[in-house]
Amino acid sequence: MEIAPANRLEKLRPYPFAALRKRIQAARAAGKEILNLGIGDPDRPTPDPVIRELARAVRDKGDPNRHRYGCDAPVGQFPQAVRDFYRRRFGVRLGEENVVATMGSKDAMVKLCLGLMNPGDLGIAPDPGYPTYNIGHTFAGGVTWYVPLRRENDFLPDLGEIPSEVRRLAKVMWVNYPNNPTTAVCDLGFYRRLVEFGRRHDVLIISDLAYSENTYDGYVAPSLLQVRGAKHVAVELFSLSKAFCMTGWRIGCAVGNPHALKALQTVKENIDNGTLRAVQFAGAKALDMAESLVPKINAVYRRRRDLVVKTLNSLGWELERPKGTIYIWAPVPERFGGNSAAFAEELFERTGVVVTPGAVYGEHGEGFFRISLTYPDEVLKRAMARIAENL
Ligand SMILES: Cc1ncc(COP(=O)(O)O)c(C=O)c1O
Fold this sequence. Notes:
Blueprint: H1 7-10, H2 16-29, E1 35-36, H3 48-59, H4 77-90, E2 99-102, H5 104-116, E3 122-127, H6 132-139, E4 143-148, H7 164-169, E5 170-175, H8 188-201, E6 204-208, H9 230-233, E7 234-239, E8 252-256, H10 258-271, H11 277-288, H12 290-314, E9 327-331, H13 340-351, E10 353-354, E11 356-357, E12 368-372, H14 377-390
Helix pairs in contact: 3-11, 4-11, 5-6, 5-10, 12-14
The structure holds pyridoxal-5'-phosphate.
């Protein structure tokens, strides 16, 4: 029996990495050595203290709830660790009503939309940008208005460019700094303007802080909640995925506006049953030890970043070393006429190196490509050598 998928799935753009995975598999099956620099999924293991805490909690026979639904037997340590972390790291004080534990941030993005948006509601999302903001809108029956991120504006949205009709209708607006895919960072001044925009137009600002801990060369990423009054107009999604090499663990948090968090919590109660307690204990351990764990992880990315930037610059690019994220974002060579797919295709055919064409992140991502630094140094070195030889 053939079952037709729901119409809402047809509204989604094909998930870019699914098609890519198939092509890589086919090329590998044909005996080609592929060096995939496409996906931002840390290769380094989760730090040992976090793993030990997981093992301790999962083995703890004294805890009668260790196997139970995370929502029925919540782990107080995790939200407390989030609050402590926000206070130490950003100087932000959060109350209990300002924190919800999530299963990473991707999950929370969609659930937040389901909790906040009615069919026909408008959400503002960046272009280029992480696709899940639009996916959340679409699943909730909403519509996306894309605000361009342009190089000449340091890949920050120009709030003046948002038409008055969009300001009036928008329910939420997404921002993400340090930014995937452009690697741009922002300062507190930008967040201040954003909070003012949200307050004036009654738009909930949602800050995706997935890469706040992956920063270099002295740059320290701010939290939107550092802005006075931001807790009333904003929600921030923080994730342990990239900060602590924990992508598969599915743990993070949403912090900020209590009404929005309540809506998120209601959706969660009706869909998921919370994160395994042992994972929450381990997440608390990671946050408690952030100051000692994060620099070691970033030292690896910094080294890889310098390798890639050095190679590309020796070939004629003029890249600055990004201050944040785990990516390199670079313009495609002129002879491709700004066609990022054509560049990625030729690179793949000639070198077996996979990069992500910027166009998959939206029309304003066209003309660029993204390299992820989440691959072992050896792989990156071989990929860079092949690019240097063949391009
Ligand atoms: C900008 C951005 N936000 C959120 C996520 C999702 O992270 P997670 O759901 O693992 O927290 C990613 C993953 O690549 C991302 O690039």
